[in-house]
Amino acid sequence: MSDEQLQAGSQDMERIRDIIFGTQMREYQQRFDVFHRDLARLQQEIDQLNEQLAEQDSNQGKKLQTLRRELRQADDDLRTELRETAQRLTTDKVERRDLGRLFLEIGTRLNEGESVGELLQNLVGGDGDSGRDD
Predict the structure, then answer these.
(1) Has residue 5 got a pLDDT over 50?
(2) Contact partners, residue 104, CB within 8 Å, separation at least 6
(3) What is the pLDDT of residues 85-99, one digit of tens each?
(4) Close Cβ partners of 115 (under 8 Å, ≥ 6 residues apart)
(5) Is 131 left (phi over 0), alpha (psi -120 to 50) or beta?
(6) Cα–Cα distances in Å, from 112 out to 53, 71, 86?
(7) Element (H, E) at 5
(8) Within 13 A of 121's CA, how many CA atoms are on the CB side?
(9) pLDDT of residue 126
(10) Which of 28-37, 41-50, 98-107, 125-134 is modeled with the greatest confidence?
(11) d(Cα 38, Cα 132) in Å, to the nearest integer?
């Protein structure tokens, strides 16, 4: 067989194959094209969702950093206030004698029948009759 005969036979085989399988092959090709388009569309949607997720992650990271700074500042403020209060308590202690006199006066007033509410009001109001030496 010559090359021309082989080529003619090959063309004949292609025609026969096209006649037998042509319709199915075109359907398969159309389906493949639809799948390919769907896959490309889905990939594009995935890419968009990944971008949105990255943006949200960035925003949440910024918010978290802000909250950490605020928490650190609040902690520092609280510690400073606690140190100041402790320092004030250390320097502004009540003398034991003054405290003893205050307790004696409270006891005396309670024995005399004064109510706790009146006693507290008099102590807070500073009626001048507390017996303390200021």
Answers:
(1) yes
(2) 131
(3) 888 877 777 677 887
(4) none
(5) left
(6) 75, 52, 37
(7) helix 3-91
(8) 5
(9) 57
(10) 41-50
(11) 91
Cα-only R_g, the chain: 47
d(CA 77, CA 74): 5
Structure tokens at 82: 């606690």
One-character DSSP codes across 7-72: HHHHHHHHHHHHHHHHHHHHHHHHHHHHHHHHHHHHHHHHHHHHHHHHHHHHHHHHHHHHHHHHHH
Contact 103, 128 (CB under 8 A): no
Please tell me whether the overall predicted TM-score, pTM, comes out greater than 0.90 for this model: no
Cα angle 115, 117, 118 (rounded to 5 degrees) comes to 70
* Domain assignments of the chain as residue spans, ordered by start: 3-93, 95-134
Distances (CA, A) of 31 to 19, 24, 25, 28, 41: 20, 10, 10, 5, 15
